[in-house]
Amino acid sequence: MPIAADPRGAPGFDYRLLHRVPATAVPQFLALERRLQAAVQDFPGYLGESGPRYVGRIRGQAGQRTVHLYESILRFDGLQGFLQWMDSPIRRAMLQPAEQQGYGFEGSADWEGYSRWLALSVPGPVPLWKTNLLVLLVLYPTVMGLTMALHGLPWDFPAKLLLGNVCSVAITGWLLVPWASRLYGPWAEGRGPRWQRALALASIVGVLVALLQLFRSLPSTLW
Q1: How far apart are CA 103 and CA 94, in angstroms?
Q2: Which pTM was predicted?
């Protein structure tokens, strides 16, 4: 099903899913996707879904199964509807049997979705490179912090990755992206003296470099 166009005035939120499917379970996976797509049709905030699209495979070594990779993109009219669907009892009940048979998935928020949120938070036009830089400013420490926080959980990697992505989407979308847009709004819109805009850009780059050095200095056991 193609992704629907954004409704007037609404910043559609995209979430990319990479599905890992054992070669012997592809028919069951495709049937599961059809059931999930049928179930989400009337879910509040749902706009559409693209895929699943076949993107490749991972050849198994001796004694291991080949894993096929599929990609799909979910779109909701906002973050809240997406989170409610991801945690809905209907979806979990459908996924649980497939996960027990080896199905797994990874997810990531669409970079452009953050851009749309930020564009709504800043009144004037914002160049895309500035939007992406502000998103990076808040997303990088959020992802690193969540990686450390979730490292000790006794879960498998796909489960921790999904939880980390959901948390990072919630934290950055509801708190940090709006905060960054207010703090750097004049720079993003190109307002104010040139020296102030240069200072704002330098501060963003400086914070990112400082964060990089900080995370490099921490013990590797935290990851």
Answers
A1: 12
A2: 0.51
Overall average pLDDT of the 168-178 stretch: 80
Do the strands 13-22 and 46-58 form a parallel or antiparallel pair, or are they unpaired?
Answer: unpaired
- Model confidence at 206, pLDDT cuts 50, 70, 90, reads very high
Which helix H or strand E contains 120, and what residues bound it? helix 111-121
Distance, C-alpha 22 to centroid of its chain: 24
Q: Which two tokens stand for residue 51?
A: 């895929």
Q: What is the largest CA-CA distance in the chain?
A: 65
Structural contact between residues 44 and 79, judged by C-beta atoms closer than 8 angstroms: no
Q: How far apart are CA 184 and CA 177, in angstroms?
A: 10
Tokens of 107: 């997810």
* pLDDT, tens digit, 9 for 90 and up, residues 102-125: 565 555 555 555 555 555 555 556
**What does residue 62 show for φ and ψ, rounded to 5 degrees?**
-55, 125
